Amino acid sequence: MTPLCTWPLSLLIHCLPLFLTQSITQSPSSLTIPPGGRVYLNCQVLGAGDPFMYWYRQDLGGGALSFVSYSVSAGSVQEMTLSHFNADRGSSIDFSLTSDGAFVNDSGTYYCAWSRTGKQAGGTSQQELRIVTRNKGSG
Ligand SMILES: *[C@@H]1O[C@H](CO)[C@@H](O)[C@H](O)[C@H]1NC(C)=O
């Protein structure tokens, strides 16, 4: 049993791919808030440098995927289609959507994606946002 990563060639062959692996995650994985509540959806891409990042949304239960926003690099947002939301590319790895007062019809599945260029796809992830009036009398 030879341990991996013990000398330079082995390091290159076995370990470099670990550092080149990209991941995309959205947090929280789902969010349920009442109408008028605050929304914070974050997407984080690791291992891809400073990629293009995108947001899309779809109504819960299906329907068309609609474009929300994209950013070509840290600190810049190129387009934003939701009027009462704010898109913020806080760093090379983070792209967030926030709202101070969500409507019931903002409920949906929110998709984040990244790419190295405007064409080449990298990866996607998703999270669910539910704006619902909570049942009364549940304590
Ligand atoms: C979503 O709901 C809000 C508040 O009721 C309304 O003003 C807005 O027009 C609705 N948006 C769509 C796309 O239906």
Automatic annotation (TrEMBL):
Show the PROSITE patterns listed in the entry: IG_LIKE
Please state every residue range assigned to the domain named Ig-like. Answer: 17-130
InterPro entries, A to Z? Ig-like_dom, Ig-like_dom_sf, Ig-like_fold, Ig_sub, Ig_V-set, TCR_beta_variable
One of its Pfam families is V-set
Q: Which domain of life is it from?
A: Eukaryota
Print the keywords alphabetically.
Immunity, Signal
One Gene Ontology cellular component annotation?
Answer: plasma membrane
- What are the GO BP annotations of this UniProt entry? cell surface receptor signaling pathway; immune system process
Residues in the signal sequence = 1-23
Query: Coiled-coil ranges per the record?
Result: none
Name this protein carries in UniProt: Ig-like domain-containing protein
What taxonomic ancestry is recorded? Eukaryota, Metazoa, Chordata, Craniata, Vertebrata
